[in-house]
Amino acid sequence: MCGFYRSSYTDATGSKKYLATNQFEATDARRAFPCWDEPAIKATFDVTLIVPTELVALSNMNMASEKPLVTFIVGDLAYIEKYTSGEYNDKKPVLVRFYAIKGSEKQGEFALDVATKALDYFARVFKILFPLPKLDMAAIPDFEIGAMENWGLITFRTVAICFDPKASDARYKQHIAYVVAHELAHQWFGNLFTMEWWDHLWLNEGFATCVGYLAIDEIFPEWDIWAQRDDVMFEALIHAKMDVINKKIILHKSEKWKLILVSRKLSSYGWEYPENEDYLTAMLRTLAIKSAGTAGDPEIAKKATRRFKLFTEKNDQSVLHPNIRQAVFEIVLMHGGGEQEFDAILNIFRNGPIVDQKLAALSALGFMQQPKLVQRALDFSISSEVRHQDILYIFRSLQTNRKSRKPLWNFIKKNWDLFQDQYTKSIKLFEYIIKFRTDMFASDETIIDIEKFFADKNIKYFKRPLQQSLENIRTNGAWLKRDIKDVENLLAANGYLKHVS
What we know:
Helix content is 50%, strand content 12%. By secondary structure, the protein is of the alpha+beta class. The chain has a domain at 3-222: Neutral Protease, domain 2 (Orthogonal Bundle). The longest helix is centred in the C-terminal third of the chain and has 31 residues, at 463-493. The radius of gyration is 24 Å and the shape is globular. The chain starts with a strand and ends with a strand.
């Protein structure tokens, strides 16, 4: 998924088709045509594509430019379009189009609305006109990263831009809005103004991240996005530490404990999602159900299982709102799920109507508890049914699941040659596989095992993430040794500690 490559998909008739696309950042344009491929070494050049008349060909645009990230896409595509207001762009509206494989173009309506509003916002805030007469956004089935800010033709992984208001999980709505705003910010910071060399990359990404959230706060003030960012950082820190602690401590799931955590929220919010409910309330309901269910609340697990059966066996779509489906899949598999439940969720992945629901099912497969089904999930992750980019969804849940964490690491070691062959040309994905699949351990024995395994391996493609993983393991271990007794005493004093192993 780098250079000029083909992406495959299955159309509405069940036929396998392809589109040609590219991913040239950071230095892969040279895979498509001879060129210098660094920020400060740019030139104008002509690229000519000879394309069958029945296909659509897209490019940055036909203006001579030294701006970065030349792009071209060829495929059987359809589009929807919308204009910006042009109010802050010298009264010149910009034509914005969303392209996708035929039949899914309507799923870009939300992203298109965000894009037109964000372009107006950035033109007003930066007081610099958007210099192009058009901006295209394209959904690519096979795409290594979330999105790429190509000059005038932004490419996205399908799940990062497609949204069905009737069938998609609402949390994707916020994710899509931010990704679109972030990539549009790069049209000014990164494209119109380009870093001189790689050591300025932090400023390029950092500024786009910041102003991306500014745009979201302007367009969707009801989301209270800045408060959410604080919560995310806090939760990440707490989750990382509690995950280590839970290896040593089993928390008592008493009625008092559940009441403190989520019972009051569950009793007031329930399982239904009113049509005009605000975004934050909907997300709070999902969080409460998932937290209680994955922690082992028997009532929530029972209700989740009942709704799951109606959803999968009776095809009753109304019993599981899209916002809660992934949480229910995980709860069912964590608490009593067997072969039948595994197969039902696998069927959703294979036949789901939209990509985010397919990926919700794929993610849930990593929460199986039985060793036989954990192995089945591992084997499925490297099958031809899972796109290379999507392996991270199932790996993330396998790593979160303490029953599968060690089997996952052993699986990577056993299949190392396969991973190296498939992912060394997709460096970002390869780095994620290494870093996120090893750095949740906390023992010296694990460090020794990892260092021993990689001692005779060529690590030039992932030296930095490997070093980061080892550093995280050492940090986890040091923190555990330093504070475990204090945490045990605190939990015991408040009646939450059931057993120390």
